């Protein structure tokens, strides 16, 4: 099966620091692909290059078979990439519903009418409310986003990504800061989401990674040292050396 | 056009540039270390000029006048920092703009209250008045040459201060990592007051030096302030080196633009309209330079931050 | 606390009542002051679209005010001297044509300045808008065809079909109507998808990009609309004074426009109305007491910035949302 999202030999240097060294990985239909690695391994840099925030020095990014390396964040989003952030990037002064409507607006291809009321647009509202309903936030639709709990903000992040009906999700540490109950709930949710669109996620929560991921890639010092199933990764000597060697 | 005129104008451009540098250096330091945009920096320029004119009028001494300018501007800077500015570091840029705009009103009207609406005059000291003969048979104003010298000396001194001294190390630490210097046990609020007063003193010095070649009046600071902003945008925020390069570029562009543009338009236009178009464009030249730098390098020639 | 909606209604009635009272009491100067408030508030409403919704701290909006003013000055100057402009175009004394010219020319100026400045953000944006404003100022001074530093005087106020614009109350009605339309536009824009996205771009540009929208384009459009409205205010202001000069481009005016927003309350619909009214009131009443009234204004501003960030509307109507 053709990959939905693919990087080919991505390289990025910041001065003398090699943040990405020829990284090639792919995201296949129906899977959850976890990207793990110690702090400073270059996971965020890689995610930013996939999302279009950073331009790689060499290599290319492909979405649904198209080369999107030259496109910016907004263009990649319109091409079907749905992203969530490690630290919630929401409009905190706005209501929960307004944040979701913003996503719905993006899903319509970037046309932003100047006069019709955004919340009176039945179409936008329906898309937004459906997404909020799926993450159990519909009851909080009129709350100010800043008043949400940390876990609810994570749910809202996911809801905004859902409104875009993306062809691939890229999630930067979706479990970060969630308690046991919260991450268990999000894990169940993401488990069901993979059939809609595959998910590439950076995650530190190993319980979640091993519960969810069909495949795992391990990034160390900007280099991909292994990609494989859970069992393959568990047994991989390089991974054990990189992880256990550092801890020991 | 004679070569002598050209050299003279290049020197004028340099002199203008170093004056702008004195303003821009303080602004860029304050922005780099404290993240503050200070519109009232022009008021400190004015304070320096008025202090110098008042002291020179009372004592007749230019040296004392310069000393008074430095002291008055530094004191005004420190006072304002303690009373108002330090409450603004954690605020957004809009609040900083508004509060420092309010300070301009207070400084300007306060100065008008004390000194009246009529301009004061600050005389060039006898030792520096009159022309000096330069190699090549060029006669040039001794005082303007002195200004260039002072500007270069301050640039070197500031460079040494930043790279060599303890204070400079703290300033650079403050630019890169605010939490770090607090963690190192440096009294951060004292450091901020010192940096602000230092920038203020430089602005005051610039005001006093310029006050001797133009009239000393309320509102003299803001046009210079805005040009210093142009300098910083060109040079890059937070960079002393950028401020120096930007200031010289702006000084030369302005002076040479006024000299050369009317002549250039006269090549393909009637002389009378060439003079009009040329001088109108010359008044925009530095802003066009700024726009060009922005398109080419949005963070300025030596800037790193966005 | 009074709901902001009721407060806005009261402010609208107040702004109407003052000149009507002045008409009854035969105080034409008060009508002129009220007209000035309406026009400056209009300029502030323009700025508020960029600054309040979009978070764009433009310190160069006097550029658009001045362009609008000169649009009026130049058209009326050619009409009163019977000299054609370039390409044989005639000047005009007709307000609708002048307004359209002011809207378009200041909108284009905003497009050019915005395209350059919106590549930057934060403190760069503030400094560069200020610098471009100053560029217009110096250009107006050094361009002798339209009066240079002395400006242009227009002998008779321009006309509007069916109205006698020389009658203060009728001219007030024009300015007041323009203000109401601009306030209506602001409210509609803010509630629209465009306003939602622009407002979100102020809070989290990353989010807006991630849903496939371009913060730059949203901001540029906001800046153009904002500049055009401020330009219209400039044309009306020039007509009020029957005079244009480079001071319309001055950085002080850019600062004062921001001050209006602060006094009333940043991002409040009626913020600029309250701000302009208070400013003009202080100018005339403190100004009578002391020629140094701006010291008082400065202290008042400092107090508001440091201790009452919601502005006067915030004090009466409470925190936002």
TrEMBL record, chain A:
Coiled-coil zones: none
MF annotations from Gene Ontology: ATP binding; ATP hydrolysis activity
Superkingdom in the source lineage: Bacteria
Keyword field: ATP-binding, Hydrolase, Nucleotide-binding, Transport
EC class: hydrolase
Protein's UniProt keywords contain Zinc-finger: no
Record domain ABC transporter: where: 5-246
CDD domains given in the database record: ABC_Mj1267_LivG_branched
Alphabetized InterPro entries for the sequence: AAA+_ATPase (IPR003593), ABC_AA/LPS_Transport (IPR051120), ABC_transporter-like_ATP-bd (IPR003439), BCA_ABC_TP_C (IPR032823), P-loop_NTPase (IPR027417)
Listed PROSITE patterns: ABC_TRANSPORTER_2
GO cellular component: plasma membrane
EC nos: 3.6.3.17
This protein's name: Galactose/methyl galactoside import ATP-binding protein MglA
Species the sequence originates in: Thalassobacter stenotrophicus
TrEMBL record, chain B:
BP GO annotations: amino acid transport
Annotated localization: Cell membrane
Family according to the record: Belongs to the binding-protein-dependent transport system permease family. LivHM subfamily.
Gene Ontology MF terms: transmembrane transporter activity
Cellular component terms per the entry's GO annotation: plasma membrane
Record keywords: Amino-acid transport, Cell membrane, Membrane, Transmembrane, Transmembrane helix, Transport
One Pfam family from the record: BPD_transp_2
Alphabetical list of InterPro entries matching this protein: ABC_transp_permease, BCAA_transport_permease
Organism field: Thalassobacter stenotrophicus
Repressor keyword on record: no
Chain segments annotated as transmembrane: 12-32, 39-56, 62-85, 97-122, 142-162, 191-213, 225-252, 264-296
Protein name: LIV-I protein H
Membrane topology recorded in Swiss-Prot or TrEMBL: Multi-pass membrane protein
TrEMBL record, chain C:
GO CC, any one term: plasma membrane
Pfam family, one: BPD_transp_2
Cellular localization per UniProt: Cell membrane
Chain segments annotated as transmembrane: 6-25, 37-64, 97-116, 123-146, 166-185, 220-238, 258-282, 294-317
A single MF term (Gene Ontology): branched-chain amino acid transmembrane transporter activity
Keyword tags: Cell membrane, Membrane, Transmembrane, Transmembrane helix
Topology term for the membrane: Multi-pass membrane protein
Family matches, as InterPro entries: ABC_transp_permease (IPR001851), LivM-like (IPR043428)
Signal sequence segment: none
PANTHER family found in the cross-reference section: ABC TRANSPORTER ATP-BINDING PROTEIN (PTHR30482:SF17), HIGH-AFFINITY BRANCHED-CHAIN AMINO ACID TRANSPORT SYSTEM PERMEASE (PTHR30482)
Name of the protein in question: Leucine/isoleucine/valine transporter permease subunit
Species per Swiss-Prot/TrEMBL record: Thalassobacter stenotrophicus
């Amino acid at each position: 099966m053709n990959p939905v999202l693919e990087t080919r030999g991505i390289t990025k240097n910041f001065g003398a620091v090699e943040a990405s060294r020829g990284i090639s990985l792919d995201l296949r239909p129906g899977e959850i692909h976890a990207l793990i690695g110690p702090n400073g391994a270059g996971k965020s840099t890689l995610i930013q290059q996939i999302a279009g925030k950073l331009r790689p020095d060499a290599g290319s990014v492909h979405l649904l078979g198209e080369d999107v390396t030259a496109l910016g964040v907004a263009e990649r989003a319109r091409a079907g990439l749905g992203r969530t952030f490690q630290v919630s990037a929401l409009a905190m002064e706005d209501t929960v519903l307004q944040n979701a409507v913003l996503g719905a607006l993006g899903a319509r291809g970037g046309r932003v009418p100047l006069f019709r009321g955004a919340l009176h647009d039945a179409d936008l509202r329906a898309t937004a409310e459906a997404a909020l309903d799926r993450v159990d936030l519909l009851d909080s639709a009129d709350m100010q986003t800043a008043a949400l709990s940390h876990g609810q903000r994570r749910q809202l992040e996911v809801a905004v990504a859902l409104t875009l009906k993306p062809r691939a999700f890229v999630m930067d540490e979706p479990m970060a800061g969630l308690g046991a109950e919260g991450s268990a709930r999000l894990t169940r949710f993401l488990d069901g989401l993979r059939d809609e669109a595959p998910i590439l996620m950076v995650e530190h929560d190993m319980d979640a990674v091993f519960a969810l991921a069909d495949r795992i890639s391990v990034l160390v010092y900007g280099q991909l040292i292994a990609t494989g199933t859970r069992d393959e990764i568990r047994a991989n000597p390089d991974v054990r050396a990189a992880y256990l060697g550092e801890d020991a | 056009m004679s070569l002598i005129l050209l050299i003279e104008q290049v020197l004028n451009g340099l002199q203008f540039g170093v004056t702008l540098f004195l303003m821009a250096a303080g602004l860029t330091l304050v922005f780099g270390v404290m993240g503050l945009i200070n519109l009232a920096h022009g008021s400190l320029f004015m304070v320096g000029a008025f202090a110098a004119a008042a002291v020179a009028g009372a004592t007749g001494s230019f040296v004392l006048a310069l000393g008074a300018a430095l002291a008055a501007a530094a004191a005004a800077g420190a006072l304002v920092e303690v009373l108002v500015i330090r409450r603004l570091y954690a605020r957004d840029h809009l609040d900083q703009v508004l509060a420092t705009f309010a300070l301009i009103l207070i400084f300007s009207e306060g100065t008008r209250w004390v000194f009246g609406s009529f301009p004061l005059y600050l005389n060039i000291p006898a030792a520096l008045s009159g022309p000096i003969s330069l190699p090549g048979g060029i006669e040039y104003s001794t005082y303007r040459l002195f200004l260039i010298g002072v500007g270069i000396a301050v640039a070197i001194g500031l460079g040494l201060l930043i790279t060599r001294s303890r204070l400079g190390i703290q300033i650079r630490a403050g630019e890169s990592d605010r939490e770090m210097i607090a963690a190192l046990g440096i009294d951060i609020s004292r450091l901020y007051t010192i940096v602000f007063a230092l920038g203020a003193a430089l602005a005051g010095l610039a005001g006093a030096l310029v006050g001797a070649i133009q009239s000393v009046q309320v509102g003299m600071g803001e046009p210079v302030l805005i040009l210093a902003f142009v300098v910083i945008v060109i040079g890059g925020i937070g960079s002393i080196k950028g401020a120096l390069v930007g200031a010289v570029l702006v000084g030369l562009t302005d002076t040479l633009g006024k000299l050369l543009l009317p002549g250039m338009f006269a090549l393909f236009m009637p002389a009378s309209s060439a003079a009009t178009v040329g001088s109108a464009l010359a008044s925009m030249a530095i802003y066009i330079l700024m726009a060009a730098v922005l398109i080419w390098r949005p963070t300025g020639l030596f800037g790193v931050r966005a | 606390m009074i709901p902001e909606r009721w407060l806005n209604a009261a402010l609208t009635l107040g702004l109407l009542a003052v000149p009507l009272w002045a008409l009854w009491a035969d105080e034409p100067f008060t009508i002129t002051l009220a007209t000035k408030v309406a026009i400056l508030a209009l300029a502030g409403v323009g700025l508020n679209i960029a600054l309040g919704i979009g978070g764009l701290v433009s310190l160069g909006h006097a550029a658009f005010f001045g362009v609008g003013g000169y649009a009026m000055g130049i058209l009326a100057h050619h009409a009163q001297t019977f000299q054609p402009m370039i390409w044989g175009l005639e000047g005009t004394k007709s307000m609708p044509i002048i307004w359209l010219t002011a809207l378009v020319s200041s909108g284009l100026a905003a497009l050019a300045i915005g395209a350059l400045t919106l590549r930057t953000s934060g403190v760069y944006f503030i400094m560069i808008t200020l610098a471009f404003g100053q560029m217009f100022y110096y250009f107006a001074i050094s361009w002798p065809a339209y009066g240079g530093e002395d400006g242009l005087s227009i002998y008779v106020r321009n006309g509007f079909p069916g109205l006698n614009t020389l009658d203060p109350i009728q001219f007030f009605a024009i300015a007041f109507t323009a203000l109401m339309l601009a306030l209506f536009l602001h409210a509609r824009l803010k509630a629209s998808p465009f306003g939602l996205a622009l407002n979100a771009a102020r809070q989290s540009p990353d989010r807006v990009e991630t849903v496939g929208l371009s913060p730059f384009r949203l901001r540029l459009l906001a800046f153009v609309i904002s500049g055009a409205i401020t330009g219209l205010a400039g044309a009306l202001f020039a007509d009020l004074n029957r005079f244009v000069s480079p001071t319309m481009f001055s950085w002080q005016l850019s600062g004062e426009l921001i001050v209006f927003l602060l006094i009333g309350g940043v991002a409040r619909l009626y913020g600029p109305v309250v701000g302009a009214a208070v400013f003009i009131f202080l100018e005339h009443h403190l100004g009578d007491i002391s020629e140094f009234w701006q010291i008082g204004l400065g202290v008042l501003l400092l107090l508001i910035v440091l201790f009452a960030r919601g502005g006067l509307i915030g004090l009466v109507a409470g925190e936002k949302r």
